[in-house]
Amino acid sequence: MKLRTAVTAAALALAAPLPATAQSVGILLDRCASVARDYFNAPSAQTNMRYNGARVDGTETIGGEIYLRGRAPYIACAFTRPGLRQTEFFVDGQDQSGFLRASSGGGGGGAGQTDTVRVQFPAGTSGTELSDNLAPGASRRYVLGAGDGQFLYVRVAPWSGSLDYQIFNPDGSFLLDMVPSRQEYRGQLWQDGDHVVEVINRTNRTVSYNVIFGID
């Protein structure tokens, strides 16, 4: 009996996830905070991330707040072994893990990457139309300077397939939560500064599209 108990205990010890080191926990805290800042387009926002321990399967979990102007959404991240790759991302209990695929990597618009384009209107006009394409899982952030009280118009028109988009205020809060491209946006702004229209390809194929912007 004692031998069987010892063998069972040894097997459980081998199956149990290894505890996270202080160094790896620090890395995960930083990575979760970085994703939160990217999500809200708030690179200088302060965060308070905490290590919540490992699940039975070894997944490491992080939770905490990001401090935006007037609110502090709760962020939850999960990282799977081996390699501690981030697989889950929640904002105030809502699953936003699709953002990880859209924002992974950087620049170039390749699969799973995101890049940024500053929109300039031709002289003497109040709008412009751009043509572009997005690889599977990629996103593109269009930055438009606008002022409090002005009206913003956005239309995303895929040539085929489907896209989604969302709009951020200058402080990183949502002006418009993610919507399908078939839904146009026209609304009045209440902040001064750079507004971000992020177009996202959540399909498994490259999508070509036109995007139209107007500011009155």
What does the model show?
The chain is of the alpha+beta class and 216 residues long. It folds into two domains: 2-96, no CATH class; 114-215, Sandwich (Jelly Rolls). It has three helices and 14 strands. It has helices at 2-15, 22-40, 98-103; strands at 46-54, 60-67, 74-80, 85-91, 94-95, 114-118, 127-134, 139-146, 151-158, 164-168, 174-180, 185-188, 193-200, 207-215. The strands form three sheets. The chain has a five-stranded antiparallel beta sheet with strand order 1-2-3-4-5. A five-stranded mixed beta sheet has the order 6-8-13-10-11, with no helix packed on it. It has a four-stranded antiparallel beta sheet with strand order 7-14-9-12, with no helix packed on it. Strand 10 (164-168) and strand 11 (174-180) form a beta hairpin. The chain is globular. The termini are far apart. Residues 1-19 and 105-109 have low confidence and may be disordered. It comes from [Roseibacterium] beibuensis. Residues 1-22 form the signal peptide.
